[in-house]
Amino acid sequence: MSDTGTQIAQAAQAAETAAGGWRRAGLAGAAIGVIAAGAAAGVAVERLTVGRGMRKKARLALDSAGPYGSLRGQPGKAVAEDGTALYYEVDEPEPDSSQARRRRRLFGRKAPAPVTVVFSHGYCLGQDSWHFQRAALRGVVRTVYWDQRSHGRSERGKAQTERQEPVTIDQLGRDLKAVIDAAAPEGPVVLVGHSMGGMTVMALADQFPELVRERVVGAAFVGTSSGRLGEVNYGLPVAGMNAVRRVLPGVLKALGSRVELVERARGATADLFAGIIKRYSFASREVDPAVARFAERLIESTPIDVVAEFYPAFGDHDKQAALRHFADVPVLVLAGDKDLVTPSEHSEAIADELPEAELVIVPDAGHLVMLEHPELVTDRLADLLARAGVAAPAATVVAHGSTAPHVDSRK
């Protein structure tokens, strides 16, 4: 048997073993086994344990401030409409930064509020997913990083826990409004969103168009979608994906009701799910294993009941019409060319609605493109800030390692 054939057999066996563990966990296990088996088929060319077969030196430079996810800023809390406490952190520009010097030169002591760049993270992640961009932009421009409800350091959504209301993307848009009101109550803002965070930005614009019109001076949509997510097959065969799509909402709901049992099973099948996380997060085979493990920790820290609560919202997401509110400001639309979660075609559709936007399709990149190719993403964000009149061009932004040899950029 060829090496690839052996790996396929091993992947299938691992999936079957994991699925058996899930079956023993109860009703939802049988369907989760289908998902595990399908994902294992996609992972088969690679071994399922993160780091196995990867012996090359790490190519990403860890910033001098500390380990991944360790950067902290001035903490704050915003209160959502349902009373949920939303945690955010602010990084202020250094007094001698180019932005601060220009403001003093133009306005003296009567300078208006500075531009604030607000970063919104994706599903099952947290504000620390912007680690490399945060390290690079720190001290250059005022930035806000926040954790979406029920994620990271934010409180579990009270509407969900107390009133059993479903999560909606519109609700997340209102959460973002609460964070802006608390962390950047005045002055221009640039909105940056990855995946679910990009959808959150669209929902904000849909419900508060006057905010975009009056205060937003730039926006970046990273690995996200304006709708039609129900058509994504996640790299699985169409027939298999149709089966998964039929059972997944019920599976997640059942799993969410058995949190303790599910979390134990997660530990028992850690290698399998590490492989699945890697497949759906990255495309490059040369991703630093430490970065892959960091992504695992972010995703695995999201409780299964939160995963279950949020998943149905994506099927209802449709914010194509809201994109028009960004037509008059500089916009960056960026995606990995091998993103299996929000395929690059979805970013192209966003760019079609915003013909003046810069569209960047990153080669050899998956869904977590800002971790996989951090320097490239940071450079594009710095270019956006320069176009928005916020900061100096990308050359002045601290560089961090990149695995991207080139990029396809077009308007």
Provide structural commentary.
- The chain is α/β, with parallel strands linked by helices.
- The protein folds into 2 domains: 3-57 and 235-313, no CATH class; 74-229 and 326-410, Rossmann fold.
- 46% of the residues lie in helices and 12% in strands.
- The chain is built from 16 helices and 9 strands.
- The chain has a 9-stranded mixed beta sheet with strand order 1-2-4-3-5-6-7-8-9, with helices on both faces.
- Helix 1 packs antiparallel against helix 10 (259-268), helix 2 (27-43) packs across helix 9 (238-256) and helix 4 crosses helix 16 (374-387).
- The protein starts with a helix and ends with a strand.
- Mean pLDDT is 79; it is low at 2-66 and 399-411.
Q: How is the secondary structure organized here?
A:
Layout (H helix, E strand, L loop, with lengths): L2 H23 L1 H17 L30 E6 L5 E7 L6 H10 L8 E5 L10 H7 L4 E5 L11 H6 L5 H15 L5 E6 L1 H12 L1 H7 E7 L15 H19 L2 H10 L1 H12 L7 H12 L3 H13 L14 E6 L7 H10 L4 E5 L6 H4 L1 H14 L20 E3 L1
Organism: Streptomyces indicus
GO molecular function: catalytic activity
InterPro entries: AB_hydrolase, AB_hydrolase_1, AB_hydrolase_fold
CATH architecture of the largest domain: 3-Layer(aba) Sandwich
- Radius of gyration equals 21 Å
Question: What string, H for helix and E for strand, traces the elements in order?
Answer: HHEEHEHEHHEHHEHHHHHEHEHHE
Q: Could you give the count of β-strands?
A: 9
State the helical fraction: 40-55%
Number of domain units: 2
Main beta-sheet strand count, sense and barrel state: 9 strands, mixed
Query: Could you tell me how far the N terminus lies from the C terminus, measured between alpha carbons in angstroms?
Result: 47 Å
What is the CATH domain class of the largest domain?
Alpha Beta
Assembly type of the chains comes to: single chain
Average pLDDT taken over every residue: 79
Q: Under CATH, the topology of the largest domain is which? A: Rossmann fold
- Number of DSSP helices? 16
